[in-house]
């Protein structure tokens, strides 16, 4: 671990046992599918077998007549207020304006289905088996239309149109042109024409990636009770209970004050459990029946009816002087949005050139609808697609210039003061330190094994802040109860508790952290965008500072002195002038009831000091000449994390993102037939890597403190998935001599690259 911060922390940087660990490993933790309550009904959803079709009619009468069926709902059951727009979470922490009809129609179709797996009707019954039987009794008549399955098809002249009312937003203006391109935007910096004129060498290449899924183990689920008092209570597996609450408010046209969302434990999300799918359908069924209704997706439904990440078509052009200075860069990026607008191309455009200080740059971004499931965030959404092109182009440029690929990157690396092409100027960042750590690492210094290829790549994620709230109640034994609104995916209960413990100078074992419902805590944004430890940790820091201030004031009243004459360090309150006046935090807590009552700290924050994170990979591979099979022989991940609050969790995030990147690089894809049906919608056929497929993933933590956070924290969870695909592709190219322009790098793709 390399660090730029010499602060001597007592709690931060240690590796305590996670607070929720015992419940999770023993099976006591309650996940969404575990939830049960009196009178529970079971829901199922009918889905389209067609990728593109008009719905002529829906007949639910036979299903409603089936014994045990309590209710059936369709798109006709949505409230009649669908002419406006709604604000939806895009996975980067930004709320974007979206057509309300599109949001509803993705959950229960309107007059068209836009992908195979599109939800059409929901059924509530006494058992899941009866509900399943009822689905087969619903008669839907379709006019089947020609599907549009790739970006190239969708953007072609005279392509079949998915939305007759969708017109292209061209550089911020409505073009009035009906097409499958929802949006075209640009980011510019300098003069790209002059930049390419000044170049001695130019690299230009096209890259393609396909749709992949986040691969969480727990399926989507939700239970809703629309009670007789008009309040709606929802229990679900979500990355953002307030996102669910606000989305339900828009979709169902009821005030947020009438909705309570209780988040259960979450069995993986990676961005895919930010959007909602079954909760509104369960709510409509509950309203009709007066009973709680639970819906749990099957694995096939998860693949076909929830949101994977986008496939992409990317063109990169780089110009450089003979000394390696990049003079110009152009990225043309089109990304699949699925059936409704909203691909991650905006985030991709922010990240594609962010690791480099380039004087002249242009990014063209295109959001394109296709007949596939509506895309959802997946761990640094859009950035891995962008890096797959950019980082391969960088390696190709290094080869043309006969430069070491790390030296080329260091020559052009972004540092403090570098302006990104999309506008922001970097504060203190660690891209240079990541590259230097890679260069000096034993992996890079080791000689390559004969016949193996070595590849490197770096990646960036900008991270986000946004609203977080935290409350702390002091117990009489000196422990504290900490309540927060960030759902816990990767151990954030403990990392947030460690913030409070550090401020108060108490052991983290004396903190009791709880994730609570939307009625119990202030507004807290989504667990995503690498914001949770940064922002909710900051809320815990401020709430603990509140407790600390009150504790000092309470001690001052006990001693009858001015509070300005006291301070609190390492859990001890003492006088600055009188050495006899000292009291531990635990001793003070034991006197609360006799000296003014309990002490409660609270904080709501919206921190602006977000610090982006950079990660890098070094990969050694072997490639079977006869079969094209790629085997990863050695893999190292390096990441600037600002401050590793809990190093074990940081390493776990780095390894987890790397493992997902390896799967994305080598195996994973939505394999679609000509009719737009997914042919591998099971975990047997959708090939995610297991422990048997993965190498040992070495980690190197770099700590370049973020000046925008009291403890120097940067988000950790996302940057690490950005570089694996290009690093592996560069390694395969090094081994075979062939440029790898498409994902996944299946044996067939590797063999075809040599033709």
Q: How would you describe what is shown here?
A:
This protein is α+β, with helices and mostly antiparallel strands. Among the domains are: 2-29 and 465-605, 2-Layer Sandwich (Aldehyde Oxidoreductase, domain 4); 403-461 and 610-752, Aldehyde Oxidoreductase, domain 4, CATH 3.30.365.10. Helix content is 27%, strand content 26%. The protein is built from 20 helices and 31 strands. The chain has a seven-stranded mixed beta sheet, with helices on both faces. Strand 19 (326-338), helix 10 and strand 20 form a beta-alpha-beta unit. Helix 10 (345-351) packs parallel to helix 11. The two termini are 44 Å apart.
Summarize the helices and strands and which ones pair or pack.
Blueprint: E1 2-3, H1 21-26, E2 41-47, E3 53-59, H2 61-65, E4 69-74, E5 85-89, E6 95-99, H3 100-107, E7 112-113, E8 119-125, H4 128-135, E9 139-144, H5 151-155, E10 167-170, E11 173-178, E12 181-189, H6 192-197, E13 201-209, E14 221-226, E15 232-236, H7 241-252, E16 259-263, H8 279-289, E17 293-296, H9 299-305, E18 312-320, E19 326-338, H10 345-351, E20 361-369, H11 383-401, H12 405-412, H13 431-440, H14 442-445, E21 453-461, E22 468-474, E23 480-484, H15 492-504, E24 511-515, H16 532-559, E25 566-569, E26 572-575, E27 582-584, H17 585-590, E28 600-605, E29 613-623, E30 630-640, H18 647-666, E31 697-703, H19 724-736, H20 747-752
Parallel strand pairs: 1-31, 2-17, 10-12, 15-16, 19-20, 23-24, 30-31
Antiparallel strand pairs: 2-8, 3-7, 3-9, 4-8, 5-6, 10-11, 12-20, 13-18, 14-15, 14-17, 18-19, 21-29, 22-23, 22-28, 25-26, 26-27, 29-30
Helix pairs in contact: 10-11, 11-19, 12-13, 15-16, 18-19
């Amino acid at each position: 671990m390399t660090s730029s911060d010499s602060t001597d922390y007592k709690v931060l940087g240690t590796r305590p046992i996670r607070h929720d660990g015992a419940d999770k490993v023993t099976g006591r933790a309650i996940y969404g599918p575990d939830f049960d309550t009196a009178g529970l009904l079971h829901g199922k959803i009918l889905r389209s077998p067609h990728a593109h079709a008009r719905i002529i009619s829906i007949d639910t009468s036979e299903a409603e007549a089936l014994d045990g069926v309590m209710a059936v709902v369709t798109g006709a059951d949505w409230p009649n207020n669908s002419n406006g727009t709604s604000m939806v979470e895009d996975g980067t922490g930004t709320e974007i304006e979206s057509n309300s009809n599109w949001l509803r129609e993705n959950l229960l179709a309107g007059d068209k289905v836009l992908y195979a797996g599109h939800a059409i009707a929901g059924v509530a019954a006494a058992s899941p088996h009866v509900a399943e039987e009822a689905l087969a009794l619903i008669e839907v008549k379709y006019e089947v239309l020609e599907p549009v399955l790739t970006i190239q098809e969708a953007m072609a002249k005279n392509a079949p149109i998915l939305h007759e009312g969708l017109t292209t937003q061209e550089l911020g203006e409505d073009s009035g042109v009906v097409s499958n391109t929802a949006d075209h935007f640009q980011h510019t910096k300098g003069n790209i024409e002059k930049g390419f004129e000044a170049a001695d060498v130019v690299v230009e290449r096209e890259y393609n990636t396909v749709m992949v899924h986040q691969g969480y183990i727990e399926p989507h689920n939700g239970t809703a009770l629309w009670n007789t008092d008009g309040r709606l209570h929802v229990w679900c597996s979500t990355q953002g209970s307030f996102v669910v609450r606000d989305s339900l408010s828009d979709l169902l046209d009821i005030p947020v004050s009438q909705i309570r969302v209780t988040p259960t434990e979450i069995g993986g999300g990676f961005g895919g459990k930010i959007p909602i799918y079954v909760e509104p359908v369960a709510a409509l069924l509950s309203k009709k029946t007066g009973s709680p209704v639970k819906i749990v997706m099957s694995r096939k439904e998860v693949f076909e009816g929830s949101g994977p990440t986008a496939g992409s078509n990317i063109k990169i052009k780089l110009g450089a002087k003979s000394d390696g200075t990049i003079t110009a860069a152009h990225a043309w990026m089109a990304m699949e949005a699925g059936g409704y607008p909203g691909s991650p191309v905006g985030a991709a455009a922010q990240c594609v050139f962010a690791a480099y200080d380039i004087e002249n740059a242009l990014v063209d971004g295109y959001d394109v609808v296709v007949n596939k499931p509506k895309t959802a965030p997946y761990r640094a959404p859009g950035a891995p697609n962008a890096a797959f092109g950019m980082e391969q182009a960088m390696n190709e440029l290094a080869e043309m210039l006969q430069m070491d690929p790390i030296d080329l990157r260091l020559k052009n690396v972004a540092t403090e003061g570098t302006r990104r092409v999309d506008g922001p100027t970097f504060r203190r960042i660690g891209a240079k330190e990541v590259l230097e750590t890679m260069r000096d690492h034993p992996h890079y210094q080791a000689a390559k094994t004969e016949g193996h290829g070595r590849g490197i790549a770096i990646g960036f994620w900008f991270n986000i802040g946004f609203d977080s709230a935290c409350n702390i109640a002091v117990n009489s034994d000196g422990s504290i109860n900490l309540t927060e609104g960030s759902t816990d995916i990767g151990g954030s209960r403990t990392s947030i508790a460690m913030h409070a413990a550090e401020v108060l100078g108490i052991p983290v074992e004396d903190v009791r952290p709880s994730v609570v419902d939307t009625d119990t805590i202030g507004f807290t944004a989504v667990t995503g965008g690498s914001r949770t430890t940064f922002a909710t940790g900051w809320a815990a820091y401020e709430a603990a500072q509140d407790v600390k201030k009150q504790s000092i004031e309470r001690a001052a009243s006990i001693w009858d002195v001015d509070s300005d004459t006291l301070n609190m360090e390492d859990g001890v309150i003492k006088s600055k002038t009188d050495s006899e006046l000292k009291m531990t935090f635990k001793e003070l807590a034991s006197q609360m009831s006799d000296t003014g009552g309990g002490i409660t700290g609270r904080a709501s924050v919206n921190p602006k000091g977000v610090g982006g994170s950079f990660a890098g990979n070094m990969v050694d591979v072997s490639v079977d000449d006869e079969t094209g099979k790629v085997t990863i022989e050695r893999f190292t991940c390096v990441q600037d994390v600002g401050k590793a609050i809990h190093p074990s969790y940081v390493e776990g995030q780095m390894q987890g993102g790397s493992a997902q990147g390896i799967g994305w690089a080598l195996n994973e894809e939505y394999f679609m037939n000509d009719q737009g049906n997914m042919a591998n919608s099971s975990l047997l056929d959708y090939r995610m890597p297991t422990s048997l497929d993965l190498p040992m993933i070495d980690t190197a933590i770099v700590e370049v403190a973020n000046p925008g956070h009291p403890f120097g924290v940067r988000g950790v969870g996302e940057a690490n998935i950005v570089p694996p695909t290009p690093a592996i592709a560069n390694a395969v190219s090094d081994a075979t001599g062939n440029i790898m322009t498409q994902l996944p790098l299946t044996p067939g793709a590797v063999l075809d690259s040599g033709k």
